[in-house]
Each structure stands twice: as C-alpha cells, then as structure tokens.
C-alpha cells in the first residue's frame, strides 16, 4: 500500500470516528468514557496521518 493510500484510509477512519462522536453527543445520556476513548483513537489517527504526510513530502 502506498503512503497516499494509507493516508486516505486513515483519513476515512478519522472521519468515521468523528461521526461516531457526534452521534454519541446526540444521545440523551452521553457515555463520557466512550467519548474519551473515541477522541483518543481519533487523535492517534491524526498523529499518524501527520507523520505520514511529513514522510510523503
């Protein structure tokens, strides 16, 4: 898999996590622990994307 393809894949996963977080906030009882974990995963993806973009030049 090329770096560009990996960046796209990670970007898609990042957007999916963002959508999941937004849905969670739309619920009557927000699960704060779940939201915290989703945000942590989203941040890890963003860091990996940034790293790959730097390598890709």
Automatic annotation (TrEMBL):
InterPro entries: DUF465, DUF465_sf. Pfam families: DUF465. This is DUF465 domain-containing protein. Gene3D superfamilies: 6.10.280.50.
């Amino acid at each position: 898999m090329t770096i560009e393809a990996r960046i796209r894949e990670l970007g898609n996963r990042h957007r999916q996590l963002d959508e999941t977080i937004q849905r969670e906030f739309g619920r009557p009882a927000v699960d704060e622990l779940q939201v915290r974990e989703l945000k942590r995963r989203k941040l890890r993806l963003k860091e990996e994307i940034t790293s790959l973009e730097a390598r890709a030049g």
